[in-house]
Design goal:
Layout lengths: L8 E5 L4 H14 L2 E8 L9 H7 L5 E5 L1 H14 L16 H15 L3 E3 L8 H12 L4 E3 L10 H10 L15 E4 L4 E4 L29 E8 L2 E5 L2 E2 L2 H14 L4 E7 L5 E7 L1 H17 L2 H19 L6 H13 L5 E8 L2 E8 L7 H4 L12 H20 L1
Helix pairs in contact: 1-6, 3-7, 4-5, 7-8, 9-10
Length: 405
């Protein structure tokens, strides 16, 4: 095995939990380097400030704890939803879209503190190691990356717990009832893996879900909400202007209360294996339906169809960690340009797990009632023109038929 590189200082993505607390001490002992901790608040719903005391107890001098929720929604979630992004037909990419922001900020902190390495707690089986590291290399090509799960032999929770105990690391993992699931949360979603979910036939337990009531238990009366769009982004709910993070928080509240946003899928990881996961994305589920409704009224047909053709590629780029790639940035420019006239209001009905579009209006609408009507359109559309249109488009079909004969 090759010798470890000489590292002076490493920036660690630090949550204060068992894994990253062990990693912090392990970096100090194995690499004999100074560690800078970085903890991002991206709306995961947990208090992040206690990590400061935990890091200080392990001798950390430079501690970064930052609220990135507005940047997360404005610069990552909203641009992704302008593309109506869905991975493999279902997944709204709640975990994937948070990683490029974390990678960017880790690189910035490395530059600020003179660190020559970054480190993360992603395992060698998952997608996150790829996302963090591709982002870091794109933004700081010469950075050294330390991924302990690919180096150490602490490959079980029992070994991690023993390491913590042997080295006097204080962790909270055994206080109260611990969830049997591996979870990741941010303002867009919460995910669940492991436990009984490793059996694709097993139905998730009802008490697993944290953000949404079950559709069966949702209110019997629907909730109506009006979403105001400017250039493809929601800027107001029921006429009240909100920041991007404020929009997503309110839609999470409304969607969760109406049983919206649950998902149970088997997905294809970038590293090659299939993985079963459950997700709650109540606000995202509303945003996707409403945005498509706004586009349906205001967007040219061929532009909309081209966007739909490119979306799966765009989704794969995000899922696989290529947010900072040249092709994603090129596609984003095209997507953003398509949103110039995606302005107006969408009325949504939320009821027992369903998101129904019940109204849409826009000053930039391409819908012409005079043409679309089934009543007399007073000459706005000449029905006779359709004959030539159909015959021209049928020419190649008629030629094929002659060849078959």
């Amino acid at each position: 095995m090759s010798a470890k590189p000489k590292i002076k200082k490493a920036v660690l993505a630090y949550s204060g939990g068992l894994d990253t607390s062990v990693i912090l001490k392990w970096l100090q002992d194995e690499y004999h380097c100074e560690v800078v901790t970085f903890t991002a608040d991206i709306g995961q719903g947990e208090e992040v400030n206690p990590v400061r005391g935990k890091a200080e107890a392990l001798g950390v001098k430079e501690i970064y704890i930052e609220d990135l929720t507005e940047e997360f929604v404005a610069d990552y979630v909203f641009p992704m939803f302008r593309a109506n992004t869905v991975y493999e037909g279902e997944y709204l990419l709640g975990t994937s879209i948070a990683r490029p922001l974390i990678a960017k900020r880790m690189v910035e902190i490395a530059n600020e503190t003179g660190s020559d390495a970054i480190s993360h707690g992603a395992t060698g089986k998952g997608n996150d190691q790829v996302r963090f590291e591709l982002g870091a290399y794109a933004l700081k090509p010469g950075v050294h990356i330390i991924a302990p799960w690919r180096e150490w032999n602490l490959l079980s929770r029992e070994k991690l717990m023993k390491y913590a105990s042997d080295h006097g690391i204080e962790v909270d993992f055994n206080k109260g009832k611990k969830s049997p699931y591996s979870m990741d949360a941010n303002l867009l979603h919460i995910s669940y893996e492991g436990g009984i979910l490793e059996n694709p036939w097993a139905e998730p337990e009802e008490d697993m879900w944290r953000w949404t009531v079950s559709p069966e238990a949702a209110p019997d009366k629907p909730t109506y909400v009006e979403l105001t769009y400017q250039r493809g982004d929601i800027v107001a709910i029921d006429g009240k202007n909100m920041t991007p993070a404020g929009v997503l928080r309110e839609l999470n509240r409304l969607g969760g209360g109406n049983g919206i946003g649950r998902l149970d899928i088997v997905e294809n990881r970038y590293v090659g294996m299939k993985s079963r996961g459950c997700y709650e994305t109540p606000g995202g589920a509303i945003m996707l339906r409403a945005h498509r409704a706004m586009e349906s009224l205001t967007m040219d047909r061929e532009v909309a169809h081209l966007k739909d053709e490119l979306m799966p590629r765009y989704a794969s780029l995000i899922y696989n960690g290529y947010w900072w790639s040249a092709e994603r940035e090129m596609m984003q420019q095209m997507i953003d340009a398509s949103q110039q006239y995606v302005n107006g209001v969408v009325r949504v009905k939320l009821y027992k797990g369903n998101v129904d579009i019940v109204g849409r209006k826009s000053d930039d609408s391409l819908f012409d009632e005079a043409i679309a009507t089934f009543e007399d359109d007073s000459g706005a559309y000449d029905h006779k023109d359709a004959s030539g249109f159909i015959r021209l488009n049928a020419l190649r079909l008629r030629m094929q038929a002659g060849r078959r004969k």
